[in-house]
Amino acid sequence: MNRSLLTKDFFQTILNRAYGPNVTKAQVWSEEEIDASASILSNISADDDDFEQAAPASSSTNPLRKPSKDEVPCPMNDMTGHFLYKIEYKTLLDPAQSMSHARDHLLRPHLSKNLLSTANSSTLSGPQAPTTMDSTVAVSTAPSTSDGQLYVVIKSKPIDTALIELTNIMAQLQGGDLADEYDPVKDLTGFRNSHIRELELAELSWKVRGAMEHISTKVYNVLRNDANQLYALCLEFLDPGMGNITHMNSTNIAPQIWTTDHIHQTLKDLASFHAQFLGQERALLGMGFLENPTRALLNVLHPVYEQMVKTNRHNLPDVFSPFLTQVSLDYLKHSDEYWAVLESNPRTLIHGDFNTRNICLRLDPETGAQSLCAYDWELACCHVPQRDVVEFLSFVLPPGSTEWSHYIEYHRLALKASYEALLRAPDAQTPSPLAPRCDIHFPSPQEYKEVAKIALMDFASMRIAMYGISSSFKEIDWLPRIVHSVEEQIRRLGPPVRARKLRLQQGSKL
Length: 510
Known about the structure:
This is Aminoglycoside phosphotransferase domain-containing protein. The protein is an alpha+beta fold.
C-alpha cells in the first residue's frame, strides 16, 4: 500500500465521520501489527503479506518505507492487505458537547466499542490491551488537553485484473476442458470491479443508512486513487478481545456455538437489510459496480461451471459425491428454466458471501443484546434474498439438520415484517430513488421454500464449485463439512421446481 497517500487530511476525515466535524483533531498516527483473516483467494498468496508485516511500520513521523533489497517482488505486494492504525487525537469540545456530536455520527454510544478509552490510554501497550470497554464514547475530562485514541483498519484492495488473472491461473493449471472454457469468460465470473465494489457500497450505505448501515462494518473513509491503483477502505477495528464482538471466524466450530437465538437474530437483521432493496432490480442492475448474475449470463457461464463440477468430482471424489455432481450438472443444464423462476421473483441486494467467514455478532456488554455485523462485501450483487439464507445455514447448521425449513420460514416472516414497516415509513430508512414498492406481495411458505431450493442449487453448483477448484491448490479444511451439509439438504428438501410452475399471485412478481 502506498502509505504516502495516508495524509493528515485522510485521518482527520476519519475522525470527522466518527465523531462529527470540529469535535476532534488528529495529532499522530501509527501502524500497528494485525492478524487479519483473509479470503480464500488471498490465502493462496498469503505469504505476500509477510513482506508487509516484516517491514518497518509507518507513522505520522515516518510515513514512507523503502523496500528492502531482500524483498521478493510480487504482483500484489505493497498493494493489498489489512493494516491496523492507531489515531491519537485531541478533543476540541467539552465532554457533554462531544457526546452530543457522537450520538449523531458513526460512534454512537452503543457502537463505540472499538474506541480505546482515554482513561486506559496511558497504560496501553497495544490494541489488545483493553478487556472491557465503556459503553459511551470516551472523551477527555479536561477539554482540549487530553488525547483519545481510535483504532481503525485500512483494507487495501487489489485491482480486479489481479484477482481475475489469479482465478484464470487456477483454471489453466487444471488443464483440459476447464482451462479452455474459463479463459474466454474469466471477466464474467464475479470479480470484475471487485476493487471498487466495496468502496461504492460504503458510499451507498452512507446514503441509504438504515438497516444496511446497521449490519455493516463501520466505514470511516474510502480512498480511491486510479493513478496509483490504490483502492482502500478505512474500517472500524473489530476485535473480540475488547468484549463487544463474538462469533468471529467461527467456521470450524459454527454448529457448536451458533444457537437458535443467534441464528434467529442474524436472520432477522439480514431480512431488514434485504427488505431495504427488495424489488429494486432495475436500480440494482443499473449499478455498474455490481456484477449481477442473470438468466442471460448463466446461459454463457453454465459450460465453465459444468467443467468445474466435473473437475471437482475427479480431484476430490471423497468430498464431491456422484449424487451432488449429478444434481449440480442437472441444475446447470437447465439453468435457463431455473433462472426464469428466480427472475420472476423480486430480488434485492444481497451480501453474496454470507457465511461465518464474513460475519460476526456485536455484543452490548451492558444489556447482552446482540446484532449482526457483516463485512467483506466484495461479492454483493442483485439476487433473491434466499441466496444469502441458504449459504448462512450451510455454515451454521450441522449436516443432516432438520431445521432448514424452520429458518427459511423465519426469514420469510422477518422479511415481510421489515418490508411492511418500510412501506409505513418509507423515508425513515430508504430515501428515494430506492423507496419501497407497494406492488410486491409475499408468497406462501411453500412458494418461498421452492425459491430457496433453487438458491441452494445455485450455491452448490457455482460457489461451492469454485471453492472446490480453490481447494485443489490450497486445502480448505471446512469445505467437506459444508459440501456434506449442502448435499444432505438437497436430498432432504427435494428437487426444486424447474419451470414457471409456481402459482403466482396476480399482479405480483411472486
